[in-house]
Structures are given as C-alpha cells and as structure tokens.
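Good day; I would like, with your permission, to put a structural problem before you. What I wish to show you is a protein chain and, alongside it, a tokenised description of its three-dimensional fold. I would ask you to consider whether the tokens describe a fold that such a sequence might reasonably adopt. You will find the record immediately after this paragraph:
***
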Amino acid sequence: MNRFAALFAALDGTTKTSAKTAAIADYFRTAPDADRVWTIALLTGRRPKRAVNATELRLWAAEAAGIPDWLFEESYTVVGDLAETIALLLPPATATVELTLDQAIRSLIQLTGQTIEARKAAVRAAWSQLPTTERFLFNKLLTGGFRMGVAQGLLTRALAQATGVEEATLAHRLMGNWDPARTPFAALIAGDSPTDGGDVRPYPFALASQLEDGPESLGGLEDWLAEWKWDGIRGQLIARPGAFALWSRGEELITDRFPDLAPLADFLPPGTVIDGEILAWDAAQNRPMPFAALQKRIGRKTVPKSLLTEAPAKLLAYDLLEDAGQDLRDQPLSYRRARLEAIITALPPRSAAGHLPHHPRARLGQAGKDPRHRKGGRGRGPDAETRHLILLRRAQARRLVEVEA
C-alpha cells in the first residue's frame, strides 16, 4: 500500500488543484492495474462493506497496545478519529510486509461472515505488518469511513492525463454499478466493464448554476425555453437492450423504489436514456403532490402497496440523452426536445412518464423557472451545462419580469 499511502500524503499536503491533479495522474501511471481500479472505486464512493464494527476495533486495539480501555477512550476523545487513534497507539510493526491496495481490500472482503476470532486474528496480523501511514489507511478501510476529498471532475481530469482518454468519455465510463472486485482497469477505461445484465450506466448529471448577472446577459429571449423547476428528485431512466434502471442524481440505483415506472420498460424504444424529475403525482388533479408525499418513498427499499396508491410516482421528462443507442448530448436542445416529445407522445395513455411544455415566450426571471438554450448542446463533462442551463434563484424573482405561462 506504499504507493497509495504516498498518494494520500501528497493530496493531504496541498490545497492546490493542479498539484492534486498531477499527483493522482502520476499515481495512475505507475500503480498496478488492480490498485488503480480500487483507487477509482474509493474516490467515487465505492467502498467495501464494513466487516468489523467500531466496538471490536477499540477492544482489539487497546489489547494490542497493552493499555486499558479507559486510556484508549481518552486518547480517542483527544484525537477525534478512530482510525488515527489506533494507528498512533499500536506498537511499531514487527515485520513490514509489502501489501498492495488490492490485497488489503480483498483481505477485508474475506472477513465478512467469519467468526470474531478469525476476524480479530486477521486484523491484528495486518496491524503488526503495516507502517503507521499504511496502518491508518487500512483502519479507514476497516471502518468504512475512507474519504480523500477528491472531486469527480478532478479525478477524471487526472485519469485523462494518465490514459490519454477524453475527460467526458471517462466520466461516462466511470458511472454505473461496475464492481471493482471483478473489473480490469483496461476494461473500465475502455468502457467494457462487466455488469449484471445489460448496460445500465447513466450519463454524468449536468447541474444548473446560479445566474450571476441580470436576465439581459442571456441574450435574446426567443433563443430560450423555460419550464417549471419541480420539487422532486432528479433521475435518469435507462432503457437499453436487456437493461432497465432508474438512477438518482447521487448515482444511487433506485429502480426498486419506484416499481410504478417499471412498465415503461415495455414501451420505451431500446437505447433510450431520459433525464427528468421524479415526482409523487396526483392523477385526479394531473399535478405534482407535495414533496413530503414523495419523501415517504425515498428512504424505503421496498414500497408497500398502500404507499404506491397513496403517492404514485411519475417521471416528468425534460431531456433526451440517448436515442436508439446514440449519445445525443452534442445535439442542440431543440432537436433533443423534439425527439423526447415524440417518444413520450407515443407512450400509452396514463403512462408513468410525461412531459410538460416549455414556455417559448417566457420572459426569464421568475423563480421556479428553469431556462434552457434552444441551440445548446448538453455537453459531456461534469460542468457541461454551465453556459446553457441556468437556474434563477427565488431571491431574484421580484426584480425580474413575470413569466407568461
């Protein structure tokens, strides 16, 4: 884990984005392939499940350090971090062993389901063989609290520098539910990572930014479309051959939480990816329900029938990212919107997906409106919509003009 420890130290020792990018790119050029895959996984939030709980670690560490439990707890209170406390209190390694990041993480995965005696022996053996920094990182992985504070854009930029693959292409390939334990580095970079079933990878979510200047900075109003900013959750619906999935903006697979959208798999053309807003929908009034109704469903792994009836879900689509398997993000919004409307219109009546019309004569500026440039491509990078998708905040509403709806 010495290469990974060196990367951690380099990132921890600077606040400069350029220095962090260079350090990560350097690491990806020299680290073993399996370590590179796990590093990408860790930096994108794919941490292995915790196999040992905090109470066990405290007891084992106090025993290994030869100190009473109360002294360990006092030390923990001063340090404030369990992984660091353990790394500082343990005696020096008796015999240093070179352990790769891949080997360390796989050893942790193997602890799942083992007896407490077997887990204790394995953890203490690792502690006795790792230097302090590597031991600290090992503890972070053990506790499930590993974070390095590296933004997704910085990671893809560094990886692009190391591999020569375009940033936007990498951003898409790193999305989805690929498994670092069985994904080769070359396959991940090439976009051929194995998945269960078809390809369910979403596209990077393009986020809106605040309008810093007045509405006049947007140019001609006839070049813009405006729609309501609904109070739901952002989602991408994937309908590809052999695959149907619903992703949240936080890259969480939420297909099972919204079974009322499942029938769309039978009606959407294969190779369709829709970006939109998931809402609890009042069919009788044909309008969204309050967010509180949707919130009852968000935290549930399984949704009871009563809640499906009480707060049925609907996807309000506002962008088409893929059509017949073709990536449309470089196409103008006017084209994407026309194709989206054709697809939604062809769905059966009372479908769980729909769209509301834009307001082409909208005078931009009222809160709750989300204006989009007709000619703007979606873009492919993490910040792709900075220029063409601008969210007007409520504080600006009264000094700007009204919207003709």
Q: What stands out?
A: Residues 17-30 form the longest helix (14 residues). The longest strand covers residues 272-282.
